[in-house]
Amino acid sequence: MYPLHSDEYWMEVALAYAYKAEQLNEIPVGAVLVKDNVLVAAGYNRSITDNDPSAHAEMIAIREGGKTLQNYRLIDCTLYVTLEPCSMCAGLLVHSRIKRLVFGAADMKTGSAGSIMNLLQEPRLNHQVDVTAGVLAESCGQIISDFFKRRRQEIKAAKKAQRDSESNL
């Protein structure tokens, strides 16, 4: 167990939300919004479940955080997320004035906190976010890797079943 209120502690909480997404067969990403070492809001991917391409873990946590704090500016808040945010979510962090982002696994395909671009620290924007990368990166990356491995196996099995069914006709 990690020290209470450490980055690792909060990332473990975010991982618990990632598992909730996985239970819905969503890409397992979880996020928690913290202010003054208190959980303000949480979210997990629900794009498929909600038929909403913007229903990323970060988006949900930040929307709920704004309601909880009754402010669209989330000054002095830290967002913990298991996967590096995409450009949509990175833009949201800038607009909501999140003070700090802590993420687990890097995303070499869509990561916008340093992997393919760094939108969060773009000097031409009116706000920059402090970024801490790689907290519990192995655990955060493993849940996503395992999810996609399982999905590929399911797709392969479904294709085989379809071929077998067609050959029996």
Number of strands: 5
Quick check: average pLDDT? 95
Number of helices: 5
The share of residues in helices is 40-55%
- Shape assignment: elongated
Main sheet overview: 5 strands, mixed
Q: Report the uncertain regions.
A: none
N→C terminal distance: 56 Å
Q: Beta-sheet strand percentage?
A: 15-25%
Radius of gyration: 18 Å
- The SSE order reads HEEHHEHEEH
- Which structural class fits the helix and strand makeup? alpha/beta
Record the strand order, biggest sheet: 2-1-3-4-5
Question: How would you explain this protein's 3D organization?
Answer:
It is a single chain. The chain has 169 residues and is of the alpha/beta class. The chain has helices at residues 7-23, 47-50, 57-69, 87-95, 137-167, and strands spanning 30-35, 38-44, 77-83, 100-105, 130-133. The protein has a 5-stranded mixed sheet. The longest helix has 31 residues, at 137-167. The model has no long low-confidence stretch (mean pLDDT 95).
